[in-house]
TrEMBL record:
Lineage start: Bacteria, Bacillati, Bacillota, Bacilli, Bacillales
Gene3D superfamilies registered for this protein in UniProt: FAD/NAD(P)-binding domain (3.50.50.60), Succinate dehydrogenase/fumarate reductase flavoprotein, catalytic domain (3.90.700.10)
Domain of life: Bacteria
Organism per entry: Paenibacillus etheri
One Pfam family in the UniProt entry: FAD_binding_2
Protein name according to UniProt: FAD-dependent oxidoreductase 2 FAD-binding domain-containing protein
Cofactor requirements of the protein: FAD
Ranges of residues in domain FAD-dependent oxidoreductase 2 FAD-binding: 2-98
This protein's record includes keyword Iron: no
Length: 119
C-alpha cells in the first residue's frame, strides 16, 4: 500500500478498540461498527473525494425555458441538466441528478418541439 506501517497499525488498533468498546471517540460513529479488523485477509483500495455535480447554472421554469434577470422566459431557449441551477436547493441529494436530467430533458424536448411547430 505504500503507507507508513506504524501509522497503519495505530489506525487499525484505534478502529478495533472502537468496535470492541462500541465507542468511536475519533469520528463519533454509531452505525456499522460490527466488524473489527483483527484477522486477515485484508484488501486495500484507494478512495478520494470527487466532484459529481455542479450546483450553479441558469435559472429555468417548469417548461425548461431559461429565465432572464427579470424572471421572464427567453423565447426559444430551453435547457435541462447540469447547465441549470437552483433546482435542488442548497444541496443535490445523490441520485436526484439522473431523475432531473430524464424528467427535464424530456420536458425540454417536448417544449422546444412545440415552440418550433408554432413558428
Ligand atoms: C463520478 C460521477 C458520479 C455521479 N453519480 C451520480 C449518481 O449516482 N446519481 C445521479 O443522479 N447523478 C450522478 N452524477 C451526476 C450525473 O451523472 C450528472 O448530473 C448528469 O449526467 C448530467 O447530465 P447532463 O446531460 O446535464 O450533462 P452531461 O452528462 O455532462 O452531458 C453533456 C454532454 O454535452 C456534450 N458537450 C459539451 N460541450 C459540447 C459542445 N460544445 N457541443 C456538443 N456537445 C457538447 C458533452 O460531451 C456531454 O456528452 C454523477 C456524476 C459524476 C461525474
Amino acid at each position: 500500500m505504500g503507507v507508513p506501517a506504524d501509522q497503519l497499525e495505530t489506525t487499525l488498533d484505534t478502529w478495533n478498540s472502537a468496535v470492541k468498546n462500541k465507542k468511536d471517540a475519533e469520528f463519533v460513529r454509531t452505525t456499522a461498527m460490527d466488524n473489527d479488523l483483527n484477522s486477515a485477509p485484508y484488501y486495500a483500495i484507494k478512495i478520494g473525494p470527487g466532484i459529481h455535480y455542479t450546483m450553479g447554472g441558469v435559472k429555468i421554469n417548469s417548461n425548461t425555458e431559461v429565465l432572464n434577470k427579470n424572471g421572464k422566459p427567453i423565447p426559444g431557449l430551453f435547457v435541462a441538466g447540469e447547465v441549470t441551477g437552483g433546482l435542488h436547493g442548497q444541496n443535490q441529494i445523490g441520485g436526484n441528478s439522473v431523475a432531473e436530467i430524464l424528467i427535464f430533458g424530456y420536458q425540454a424536448g417536448i417544449k422546444s418541439a412545440e415552440f418550433v411547430k408554432a413558428q
